[in-house]
Design goal:
With 342 residues, the protein is of the alpha/beta class. The chain has helices spanning 22-33, 49-53, 71-82, 169-178, 198-209, 305-323, 334-337, and strands at residues 2-3, 10-18, 38-42, 59-60, 69-70, 88-91, 95-101, 104-109, 114-122, 128-131, 161-165, 184-188, 214-216, 219-227, 230-238, 241-246, 249-252, 256-259, 270-271, 274-276, 289-291, 296-297.
């Protein structure tokens, strides 16, 4: 992997990709198959986005032909798939501004670098992100010791009393996964309905019946009880009053607070915290700027990795036509044409 963390340098390429998460990595491959070179910008120190930073050991079940794959392994394979096309990664820096220069887009980064490209793909996932913290007094003293907002290594929770709070996919999936190794798993949610995949909810109910998971519903977090940075119990409140749950670990999964950052000021049509695109090309309201993945919105958009993969392919083909308006693209399947350079 070519990783450039120099400052105040100038580069030129075909496509600048903002975001090195799974969809951004697949965009490198799709562009590469069309002979387009890519430079990739990401604020994190490694590729993979949330998959690497937040849940590398979380299993993913909806990638075609892979019944189950860990998020970190998926990123590793996507990076290998992109590697033959020799992308240049600009990590630990943010894309802060964009400007036009004839037929080129100039992206400037927080390290003072300038990347000149014929097109830009914004693949920033949910933009910059951080956890939504529950409003509990003194929670800061427990963070990174007893309170965690992500699971990077599930083995760290072996034989622990784990309390998970939340009702979405992350809360349900981790309750299921950690039930195999934790001493106990208690899932706290404000109601007895969960916003997770139906199959996951069915598995959760099955584990509850087998006394592998304790569903604490309808309850909400009220107070943390501990000594120094070590948690001893979590107090919850509900219609039946308060009760304490023995806990070594609290995992609050209330989603991520997301921010488009400087992209918000790039004069693109936005819908809330997402970028509006033409779904047939993934192009934004600005010519030559495309966007893919969870950061985009259009009618009936599905926030799935595989949807982002499809958007990456459509953006790459649209960019090829933009750069080569008079050159007909004879599309062939990879099984027919192989991989360039292989």
């Amino acid at each position: 992997m070519s990783d450039n963390t120099q400052k105040n340098q100038q580069f030129e390429t075909d496509v600048t990709i903002i975001g090195a998460g799974p969809v951004g990595l697949f965009a490198i491959f799709q562009c590469g198959m069309l002979g387009l070179k890519c430079h990739v910008i990401d604020s994190l120190a490694e590729v993979g986005g949330q998959c690497s930073a937040l849940y590398p050991e979380k299993p993913i079940y909806d990638i075609p032909a892979l019944p189950e794959v860990l998020a970190g392994d998926l990123i590793e394979n996507l990076e290998k798939q992109a590697a033959p096309f020799k992308p240049c990664y600009h990590l630990k820096q943010q894309a802060v501004s964009i400007s036009d220069n004839d037929a080129f887009k100039i992206i400037r980064t927080s390290l003072g670098n300038e990347i000149k490209a014929r097109a830009v793909i914004i693949a920033g996932g949910a933009g910059s992100f951080g956890p939504n913290r529950p409003p509990l007094d003194g929670i800061e003293q427990y963070e990174n010791t007893s309170v965690f907002y992500m699971v990077r290594r599930k083995e760290d929770f072996r034989d622990k009393n784990v309390v998970i709070a939340g009702g979405g996919d992350s809360a349900v999936d981790w309750a299921i996964t950690l039930s195999d190794i934790a001493k106990s798993v208690s899932l706290v949610h404000r109601r007895d309905k969960f916003r997770a995949a139906p199959e996951s909810v069915n598995k959760l109910r099955e584990l509850q019946e087998n006394e592998k998971i304790d569903l604490v519903v309808p309850y909400q977090l009220k107070e943390l009880i501990g000594n120094g940075a070590q948690l001893n119990a979590v107090r919850v409140s509900g219609e039946g009053g308060d009760k304490d749950i023995e806990a070594d670990i609290l995992l609050p999964f209330y989603g991520l607070a997301t921010d488009l950052g400087p992209i918000h000021d790039w004069n693109l049509d936005l819908e809330g915290h997402t970028i509006a695109v033409e779904p047939s090309t993934s192009e934004t309201s600005a010519k030559g700027i495309y966007s893919i993945g969870d950061i985009v919105s259009y009618k009936n958009k599905l926030k799935l990795i595989l949807t982002g993969f499809s958007e990456a392919a459509m953006a790459a083909h649209a960019i090829y036509k933009q750069i080569n308006p008079d050159q007909e693209l004879h599309f062939e399947y990879s099984t027919t044409k192989g991989r360039p350079g292989s």
